[in-house]
Amino acid sequence: MLASKRILLVIGGGIAAYKVLDLIRRLKERGASVRAILTRAGAEFVTPLAVGALTETRVHTDLFDLTEEQEIGHIRLSREADLVLVAPATADLMAKMANGLANDLASTCLLATTAPVMVCPAMNPRMWSHPATRRNAETLKRDGVVVIEPASGRMAERGEEGVGRLPEPLEIVAAVERFFAGAGGGALLAGRRVIVTSGPTLEPIDPVRYIANRSSGRQGHAIAAAAARAGASVTLVSGPVAIPDPPGVTVVKVETARQMLAAVEQALPADVAVMAAAVADWRVATETSSKIKKDGSGRPPVLDLAENPDILKAIGQLGFGRPAVVVGFAAETDDVEANGRAKLARKGADLIVANDVSPETGVMGGTRNTVHVISADGAEHWPTLTKDEVAERLVRVIAARLGAAP
Hints:
22 strands, 8-stranded mixed sheet, 6-stranded parallel sheet, Rossmann fold, about 35% helix, about 400 residues
């Protein structure tokens, strides 16, 4: 997909710059030609020699290079690219881009380019969440820059953890491939309305306790984002999660299963419904208005449970107004495919995406997934992919069922 694509890589000054060496290799493996601008700060983390050895071209570092600038080199660099990729995009570099500053080669090329721009932010979590950085990110999005959300995890600083890690090289490559697929007319869901549910539901026991599950919402949010990139008008109904809202979608935030069902029904009519949320099967029949106290007897309180509404079944068996494609998820710990097939028949869905969520798989809360896509025609067994890649594939499957793709 990247054969003959020309990518100008701008390497910012962050510890994550070491990942860019592998990113260059991965891009070139797929046929892309890569030229690099290494900022002065970036050169503190990776050397021009290492970058040049992998790109097999001269590495550009200086705005005032006498040889290059005789031919207005920064303009030529900025124009001779199909995509300008900034990785890592530091808070400083994003601030320059958002405010039109141009005091070095990288920022000058970014201001002068007519090519599309994609940035991969990487920084300390507090820097990423700072209002100034958030404003700059939103400004870049409004300017048409593609912003790849940073990943969550442990940071280089001792004891620091949170959202701010540079995505892994293959994840960035996948984002670049998705970009070029979309640029080539890949709006598979243009004009379609899509509803996606995501995350857990929280079912209150008393004012401080609740019944919930370990869902992070990553897969549902990735599906909503992929559907939006494919041109759909997307409503994302999300339980409580700790991840950012995906760009380009309408987000409705709920807590309980009953609230989620009401929000889904409110979002109808739709062409597609993807029920990816991990909805709690049960709730407490009567929520107490005061915190339940220990009574000294040593006996725990008895919780009388009531069954929650089955959102997938309600939509899958809807008569008039049923979406053309209804997709459910089956999170299983054993007999994954068999349980997925049974759920397909029981819920009235068109597709069931079944996966193993046993603790050892790391799926719940993780960034990767291994799924089996089950329909009346059989099952497709997909390899282990990032959740973004699963989302992209699923959108293509849905589009094919709608007749929007060959």
